[in-house]
Automatic annotation (TrEMBL):
Similarity remark: Belongs to the short-chain dehydrogenases/reductases (SDR) family.
Organism of origin: Pseudomonas karstica
GO molecular function: oxidoreductase activity, acting on the CH-OH group of donors, NAD or NADP as acceptor
InterPro entries: KR_dom, NAD(P)-bd_dom_sf, SDR_fam
Protein name: SDR family oxidoreductase
SMART domains the UniProt entry points to: PKS_KR
Highest taxon above the source species: Bacteria
Ketoreductase domain sequence ranges: 8-194
Amino acid sequence: MTQFLKGKVALVTGASRGIGAAIAKRLAAEGADIVFSYAKSRERAHAVASEIEALGVKVLAVAADQADSAAVAALVRTAHDHFGRLDILVNSAGIFVTGIIGDPQVDIAELEHQQAVNIGGVVAAVRAAVPLLSDGGRIVSVGTMFASRAPFPGIGDYAASKAAVAAYGRAWARDLGPRQITVNTVQPGPINTEMNPETSDVAAMVKQMTALGRYGQPEEIAGAVAFLVGPDAAYITGATLNIDGGQNS
């Protein structure tokens, strides 16, 4: 690793597992000190923190409810206060709830909670972070390729929540451009995580939908995020990057 983030502080939300954990560990490997949030699993969070600490950087794990805007704002302040600066914000926390419109069996409360996490949590984090971010800082949000294409029923609310994040990102890029703060969105396709394992019953069908014929790995998303928060991406902002193995091609 080139350690091009040495001296930087990164906050990654939702990083006790999956894509978020991979991002936190990759940024740590590049030299950044890490603050990350988790929802419930303290044991998992501590395991990730131990892995990050072993990379020779400092780390702080914070429990925070992403659906609670006040808790998210407190998380951001804690990150800044703990290390005395904040350079990178990665909005990785999110949930996936499905429901076909008009289906009386759909749990509307769960769909509304999804909106609170996937949209409200991102907005709260960015609003709290902007006054604290260093000029030239980086914001990256993790969306989904479903924001661009809905290949099967029942994903409308989820897709819309992530499409909103991408739209916010484009607008925030304009708002923060004068401070040289870049804002970008990565949109993963099928990624091998606990929520969507490459060994599931539908895995064969999913693989056929991609140009590369396989699932992606969390580390492949992390690599793209590391690039976007690094010095070589200083002229990339307002972008939406599909990382989906060609599923949207």
